[in-house]
Specification:
The structure holds two protein chains of two kinds. Chain A is α+β, with helices and mostly antiparallel strands. Helix content of chain A is 26%, strand content 8%. In chain B, the strands form five sheets. In chain B, strands 1, 2, 3, 5, 7 and 11 form a six-stranded mixed beta sheet that branches. In chain B, strands 12-10-14-19-16-17 form a six-stranded mixed beta sheet. The chains are: A alpha+beta, B alpha/beta.
Chain lengths: 273, 493
């Protein structure tokens, strides 16, 4: 991070805090969870590569403070029978879809109400977000990464080893450990559980073209990045984030996994000035 | 004899290979082996956990072989009281051993367990094709990939995960070995073992208790916390040691997963009769230590002769004793004293100066203190001291070594200035010196650790022995010379 971009981020923070105050003004449809607004701003993604690329500008959006829970997804399924396990088409979700629920309409012991929902396909996640109304959708990778770069005090905590260690701790624990409930410590935006709980779908997951063989960075048709987690990345310390991208890029939209859930965003049109 | 037999079996293999090559399809005629279409029913490959190796293949034809390998991320012990979340092929580190025959068509199924957090793939070094299979096997948790390859080259090959960050996947234990047997098979042995080295990087120090997380910083800096055989300290020691009997042939498939270190593989107390170094076709004989590159493997063979515990180490030896790279092969059977006696003597050793007649020195010292030291007491004490200090070079008989160490026996040098002789002892002597008509040009170190009494006694002994002129050297004379700086001495010669 250069000094210039640091001062830039200071501005973003103040704007972000301002937006946060008006975040509650986003119209609620049938949404159980809160959303907070994230002001438009610029963000240097890990996807930028080695070359000095200008940070991407990210338009304003409002993001759910926490991942969608089993309770919330059950409500959704009850209102939208077509998304019940057993009813859903195989082209929209694989055989493992919601298979940790006791029945298609009942959570059971293996799925606590406040745990984040998992075993959901991209299609199902997208449908849930659309049902949130107001143009709800899955966040883009850039939106997700931007919010995930924050810790409790900084909008961009990526240079902080503690931030990275927090992410890596989760990678070093086995899945057999019971999934925690949503509601972890909020970051500076007021958003919870970006790290350390689950993987999350993003809208453009299939544009995160990690080569199936991650070492082909020398290939003429090389993709956005790959490079053994080191070479093609702007900052090799970002490998913690890279691993999330690697996971997303291994998936198809119908796939579900035991660690993969989602949250939604709502676009903020212009926003109050 | 052993070597000769190995050579014969090798020659037989070459012959077989040639025969097969003659019957192979024209497109692959240049590659030895039989590469026709797979024959018979598809065969499900037997996979084994380390240190076990699947049974030898007796099949005489190329077949379709189905390999089903499951990736599991699981917490296991890396050292006593220390656990680590390993990423594994088949639930073990190293991963399951795969054995196929050259020319086989291998249908490979990579399954990623639903509880996995990470996507994984596999690069088999025994595969000819992009990524060694990695481009075709990128698999999300709870999913399965399939690809097929023909095993063109025989040999022992490493396989590993190649998902970004590759180093981390490898450092977490994602590697194993695949053996592609030559069509004629391998020479029969009594034991086959599967041993694989790897380096591990934990946030906590070596043997720091509890669940340890991976440390990327240490991995990039190549500062491993652990260097291990078969994924855990103690994986192959104690109850889990490899076992064999005397007079058996042992073959070890030894791989090195890395991610960083190169292994200097050595078995303490054994000499490898045969090593297929780098896993290639050349066989080296009589090898003490063989280098196994990261992402490489070797086949080592030896015959057990003498019972006992043989320690497998990475001879970059701090890794063995401070990072865990240590395993045991326990060989049972009758002793073979003709080859190795075991301990024949266990006696106290005190060095030359601790001989019983050191009492002569004590006597002389006591007499000197009383002021009634006799010449004979000096000679007796000097003889003992000479043995301990001077005889190493000048020899016990005072003859010295021709051209290297001047003689003290009948020495014209000694017959000259006594002060010069004392100075030589105290200050040493270097450069040219002529003794009894012969020139010597070497270095005598200063013997200033000897006290005045000791020097006097030694010289008195020397002057009264081997035809030298006799007489006494006193402690005071030595003291006087010691007081003079050793400056002008060299000019005398």
């Amino acid at each position: 991070m250069t000094l210039r971009s640091r001062s830039h981020w200071t501005r973003v923070v103040s704007r972000g805090l301002f937006s946060l105050c008006i975040g509650a003004a986003v119209p609620a449809v049938a949404r159980a969870a809160g959303y907070v607004s994230i002001a438009a701003g610029e963000f240097a993604s890990v996807l930028a590569g080695d070359t000095e690329v200008k940070p991407s500008s990210v338009p304003a959006f409002a993001m759910r403070t926490s991942p969608v829970t089993n309770r919330e997804f059950l409500e959704f399924v009850k209102r939208n029978q077509g998304w019940a396990r057993g009813r859903v088409s195989r082209v929209l979700a694989d055989t493992q879809y919601l298979n940790h629920w006791r029945t298609p309409r009942e959570l059971g012991d293996a799925a606590l109400a406040d745990q984040p929902v998992i075993n959901v396909s991209w299609f199902a996640a997208q449908a849930f977000c659309e049902a949130e109304g107001a143009g709800g959708r899955l966040p883009s990778w850039l939106e997700w990464e931007r919010v995930a770069a924050a810790d409790t005090t900084h909008t961009d905590a990526r240079p902080n080893p503690a931030w990275r260690a927090e992410i890596l701790r989760w990678y070093s624990t086995a899945t057999s450990v019971t999934l925690a409930n949503t509601g972890g410590t909020a970051n500076v935006y007021g958003i919870q559980d970006m790290h350390g709980l689950i993987w999350e779908w993003v809208d453009d997951f299939n544009a995160l073209l990690v080569a199936a063989d991650s070492r082909s960075q020398g290939d003429p048709d090389k993709l956005q990045f790959c490079g053994a987690g080191a070479i093609s990345l702007k900052d090799r310390d970002n490998y913690a984030v890279l691993m999330r991208i690697a996971l997303l890029s291994s998936l198809k939209a119908v796939d579900t996994t035991r660690n993969l859930g989602f949250r939604c965003v709502i676009p903020v049109s212009k926003g109050p000035k | 004899m052993k070597t000769l037999r190995a050579f014969i079996s090798l020659a037989a293999t070459v012959l077989l290979v040639c025969v097969h090559a003659a019957t192979a399809a024209p497109a692959t005629a240049r590659i030895p082996g039989d590469f026709g279409p797979p024959q018979g029913k598809p065969i499900k490959a037997v996979l084994t956990s380390p240190p076990h190796v699947p049974p030898a293949i007796t099949r005489k034809y190329p077949a379709k072989v189905i390999v089903e390998l499951e990736v599991v991320e699981k917490e296991m012990q890396i050292s006593e009281g220390v656990s680590y979340l390993f990423w594994t092929f088949g639930g073990t580190v190293p991963g399951s051993f795969i054995r196929v025959r050259q020319g086989d068509t291998v249908e490979f199924h990579l399954k990623n367990h639903p509880s996995s957090k990470m996507p994984h793939n596999i690069d088999l070094h025994g595969v000819t094709g992009p990524g060694g299979g990695a481009t075709s096997s990128f698999t999300a948790p709870g999913h399965e990939s399939q690809f097929t390859f023909k095993a063109l080259n025989e040999g022992i090959y490493v396989y590993h995960c190649a998902t970004a960050p590759v180093g981390m996947h490898v450092a977490n234990g994602m590697y194993g070995l695949i053996l592609v047997e030559p069509p004629g098979g391998m020479a029969k042995v009594d034991h086959e073992f599967y041993v694989m080295q790897g380096d591990f990087y934990t946030v906590g120090k070596y043997r720091e208790k509890g669940l340890q997380a991976f440390d990327m910083e240490k991995a990039i800096d190549e500062r491993p916390t652990y260097v291990l055989f078969n994924g855990a300290e103690g994986a192959l020691t104690g109850d889990k040691a490899l076992t064999a009997k005397t007079n058996q042939k042992v073959r070890m498939f030894v791989g090195n997963g890395g991610p960083n270190l190169v292994s200097s593989f050595h078995v303490i107390g054994e000499i490898f009769d045969n090593v297929r170094y780098e896993g290639g076709s050349n066989v080296q004989h009589n090898v003490q230590t063989t280098l196994i590159p990261a992402g490489g493997a070797a086949v080592v063979e030896f015959r057990t002769e003498v019972p006992g515990s043989y320690v497998l180490v990475d001879h970059s030896i701090f890794r063995a004793f401070n990072k865990g790279a240590l395993a045991i092969l326990k060989v049972d059977g009758p002793e073979n004293k003709a080859i190795y006696s075991g301990k024949e003597l266990d006696a106290v050793y005190l060095g030359d100066r601790a001989q019983p007649n050191l009492s002569a020195v004590t006597t002389a010292t006591a007499a000197a203190a009383k002021g009634n030291l006799t010449q004979q007491e000096q000679i007796n004490a000097g003889k003992v001291l000479f043995t301990g200090t001077c005889s190493v070079c000048h020899q016990a008989n005072g003859e010295g070594l021709a051209g290297v160490f001047p003689p003290l026996a009948k020495s014209d040098y000694l017959a000259g200035d006594v002060k010069r002789v004392i100075a030589s002892v105290l200050h040493g002597l270097s450069g040219k010196v002529t003794v009894n008509g012969k020139e010597y040009n070497s270095v005598m170190p200063p013997m200033n650790q000897l006290n005045n009494d000791e020097v006097a006694n030694i010289l008195t002994y020397v002057y009264n022995t081997w035809g030298n002129p006799g007489g006494r050297v006193t402690s005071d004379e030595v003291k006087a010379v010691r007081a003079q700086p050793p400056v002008a001495r060299r000019a005398e010669h």
